[in-house]
């Protein structure tokens, strides 16, 4: 398996494990020696990430993360996902950018958009 394919697999497992309810395992398996967060509402480090995931799952116990696309180039992996916080609601479209070092997640950026109930076209967001 190429490094790019390995990195994609690492990020998908990390993301699904964390938002599936086990952020501690996601960190133990996939975090590097540091975790730099570029979301202005989130702090750096594994403890902050665990706290965020625990808070989010506490607020939305039925949340579901559906990764639609995964792209890798160099040390970066990008996911395009649909985060449904509550069943039956439109949810959010996410573009997450992860940087890896030596097969470990060390940096994260994201772009988040509410999925609208109506659109100017029929293309859908995913």
Labels describing this entry:
single chain, 126 residues, alpha+beta, Nuclear Transport Factor 2, Chain: A, five-stranded mixed sheet
Describe the structure.
With 126 residues, the chain is α+β, with helices and mostly antiparallel strands. The chain has a single domain (3-114), classed as Nuclear Transport Factor 2, Chain: A (Roll), CATH 3.10.450.50. The protein is built from 3 helices and 5 strands. It has helices at 3-19, 23-30, 46-59, and strands at residues 31-37, 64-73, 76-84, 92-101, 104-114. Strand 3 (76-84) and strand 4 (92-101) form a beta hairpin. Helix 1 (3-19) runs antiparallel to helix 2. The relative contact order is 0.19. The mean pLDDT is 96.
| CATH fold field value | Nuclear Transport Factor 2, Chain: A
Give the averaged pLDDT, no decimals.
96
Please give the alpha-carbon distance between the first and last residues. Answer: 27 Å
State the oligomer. Answer: single chain
Major beta sheet, specifics?
A: 5 strands, mixed
What number of domains?
1
Classify the secondary structure makeup into a structural class: alpha+beta
What's the short story on this structure?
The chain is α+β, with helices and mostly antiparallel strands. The chain has three helices and five strands; from the N terminus they run H-H-E-H-E-E-E-E. Strand 4 (92-101) and strand 5 (104-114) form a beta hairpin.
Question: Secondary-structure blueprint of this entry?
Answer:
Blueprint: H1 3-19, H2 23-30, E1 31-37, H3 46-59, E2 64-73, E3 76-84, E4 92-101, E5 104-114
Helix pairs in contact: 1-2
